[in-house]
Amino acid sequence: MDKILLSQKDMPKQWYNILADLPFPMAPPVSPVTGQPVTPDEMLRIFPGPLLEQEMSPQRFFEIPEPVMEILSLWRPTPLIRAHRLEKALGTPARIYYKYEGVSPAGSHKPNTAVPQAYYNKISGINRLTTETGAGQWGSSLAFACQQFGMDLRVYMVRISFTQKPYRRTFMRLFGAEVVASPSELTQAGRDMLAAHPDTPGSLGLAISEAVEEAAGRPDTNYALGSVLNHVLLHQTIIGQEAMKQLALANDYPDFIYGCHGGGSNFGGIALPFLREKFAGKDVTAIAVEPASCPTLTKGTFAFDYGDTAKLTPIMQMYTLGHDFMPPAVHAGGLRYHGAAPIVSALLNHGVIGAETVDQSDIFKAALVFARTEGIIPAPESCHAIAAVIRKAAQLKEEGASKTILFNLSGHGHFDMGAYEAYLDNTLEDFAYPAEAIEESLKHLPEVNL
Ligand SMILES: *Cc1c(COP(=O)(O)O)cnc(C)c1O
After folding, report:
1. Among 44, 99, 151, 183, which is disulfide-ready with 190 (CB 3.0 to 4.6 Å)?
2. What secondary structure letter does DSSP report for 333?
3. Phi, psi at residue 61, to the nearest 5°?
4. How far apart are CA 129 and CA 47, in angstroms?
5. Is the separation of the CB atoms in 338 and 296 below 8 Å?
6. Range 68-107+229-442 has CATH code 3.40.250.10
7. What 3-state DSSP class applies to 444?
8. Which atom of ligand 1 is nearest to the CA of 262?
């Protein structure tokens, strides 16, 4: 059996909140204004009450509201696929399964949280959102979700992607969103950056500043973030819960779980439900995989830092490369973020999970092997997980160990043909680890004394 499907009625009806089960405390988010833990009032300027509750609550499960279930069921449950052909090509004794999130309207896992975020804003009386997007996947997902609920959306799109990925722009407009290149003249953060660096390619950290600044300044508008925050990881746990049911149908259980890591949401989504069982004694190893050129988890510092460049967001305890770090323009745009989810960071810091890096050249090699065996062209982001899985499968072959590997195929790469073309033409540039830039930006971490 290659494809393990759940019926509609077996779709999980709750999200799993790992905050209920963490064997250690998490530091609270800190206000950039007062230097003390943020108050709900500060957060309510840009987030609706129900999402704020999910962000802070220790409640173990949250019911998925019926209108959200209805939209999610347009593409969920997603398939779990046994990668027989990949296993054979690698000659590995490992059993490899992947959860395929590319079947969603935006082609990635991101609509799993875009839909509930739009919904909770809508029922809280908000009809307009702002957000940022790097490679375009989050903007596409939120555009779809806002359109489902009849809401307006303005997307600040990192300028280099705005120019390089015109079809993602079209995708967002097709769903009714307004797309603006960031930095823009619409915000103070954007104007300041343009005055200082007129030719800047932009960054995710700066686009977040613009979207937050606008939302904080308009009572009719809230802000939505596609990764990093606790409630985003919560919404993504539907992936891991489904995978657990599907593996049970195949009479299997993972020894190793892999997910690529940008802000931590697809990795958290697949891993957190299994970590609940790890806390209860199961032997399972979860590993987040990031680019060698933006090595937040493996080379960053575990510290308090801002989520954005202009220091408007709360300060969170996380692995960070520094809020003003400008990651190299790797093709996996969704992994170019200076920080990491506080939950993933704390799990790593306490030795519950592992983290690894892979080079850009290796991810495209892995992509070719995967596409030519399994028939799916993966997103360059997802290829980080694939490359790490292939590395592990080779090691298991060496050891003659028959283990089970599960990974999250977070999205397809149909909008990434430019990157694939460069790889096939041998014009892809590899990026070294930007040691000096990271050392410099880590000098600018805020002081926090709680
Ligand atoms: C955005 C994105 C990522 C990275 O974000 P996470 O929050 O770390 O999951 C990974 N894969 C795809 C396909 C994406 O769109």
Report:
1. 183
2. G
3. -130, 145
4. 10
5. yes
6. no
7. helix
8. 8
